[in-house]
Amino acid sequence: MMNAPLAATKPTSAATSRRPVAIPPMPDYTGRVLAYVCTATIILVGLYTETFEHWMIWLAAGALFWPHMAHYFTRRTILRRSSRVRHKMLLADCALGGGFVGLIGMVVVPSLAVLMMLMFSCLLVGGMRQWLLGTGCFLASAAVSLWLFGLAPSPNAPILLSMVAVLTTGLYICVTAYYAHLQAKALVTAKSQIQHQREQSIALSHKLSKYLSPQVWQSIFTGERDVRLETQRKKLSIFFSDIRGFTELSEEMEPEALTDLLNTYFNEMSQVALKYGGTIDKFVGDSIMIFFGDPTSQGQRQDAQACVSMAVEMRKHMKILRQKWRSQGIKTPLEIRMGISTGYVTVGNFGAENRMDYTIIGKEVNLAARLEALADPGEILISYETFSLIKDTIMCRDMGEISVKGFGRPVPIYEVIDFRRDLGADRSFLEHEHAGFAMYLDSEKIHADERRNILEALESAAERLREEDPDY
Predict the structure, then answer these.
(1) What is the mean pLDDT of residues 119-142?
(2) CA-CA to 331 of 20 to 30 Å: which in 147, 206, 300, 461?
(3) How far apart are CA 142 and CA 137, in angstroms?
(4) 384 with 470, same domain?
């Protein structure tokens, strides 16, 4: 007469207790057998108390036979391919239950018992929608049956029949509710395990992100980019840099101290690169390779300006690092040299199916590397293509032409001076270095509450110098 979509948990071993466990539902067949056994019991007790007609013994037999027939229909016939077959079979149960209630002439307690089992099953299987449909089928079938057979002489049932009807209905509801409790408990456990696995996956993805540029990692984990061997042609701005004097320093310092210095340098420069949206390609020795325009781009002009702006800030930031290293006893004046070019390159995943590298290749990459090798310490050399995109905001000096392998004619190059806004009397950036003195000032980055402390420090330093040299 009804089925139960409930689920039970199975004990798991210690090896599988940490993974979500599949919860086998209480089979429709078992739930329907239980419900119809309860109904058959009500019929038999009704016959015993002479509340029902003697011929209704066949209804008890049919109640015991129908669950097996329904199971055959839903598993062995074309009905197994029908969508929502469980919901449809439950509607058939509601129709049968309504017919039964009409046959017994609406005897109150048995009728309510059958109705409660049906409605309880409908709510469990399909919620309010199934409950409304089931109620409609039940009422329609009951109305037809009453029209054919009429009401019972007395709507009251004997005490024995009423007690059996209440007990069997309670038994069905308790058993199905118990399975529902087990399912809910298992679902809570599964949800907790899934949350734990999700947190582990997030932690793992964050660890893996350290080996990829943030832009590449984000495009992969958001599904914007597939992890497969594919490339494309795009116009990018490419940046190369290395540290002048690092080789000599490596011969003087212990490997551990040198490693700490290099990691500090890479960390500081990576923060600057990410600030401007650069995709960090790789670290090689003391060299850094960065490109702009993939996997995200703000436009060719904006990408080139961001790339050169990053290089200018790196050059300024290197002065701060030199002061820090000098305070740590490193006297070698480390400086960086940089090269930038803009042009079409091939970008994407290179390598093998089981080991890929997201990088770029092309003659513009070679040009940027060549410019970096030609640059003097603290110098930024750029190609003409880059210069044409940034000349309105950044002052550059023409450095003539160079011959580069892969280019048919000499390539004009330019030296980056500074932002136009920072040139002249209104510039925000000042620097001065001597033995025993170093000053780096970027007034745009100084907060109002820090200005007083800086002025006091400068006045104190000036007063100290005047005391040591009265002529000033």
Answers:
(1) 90
(2) 461
(3) 8
(4) no
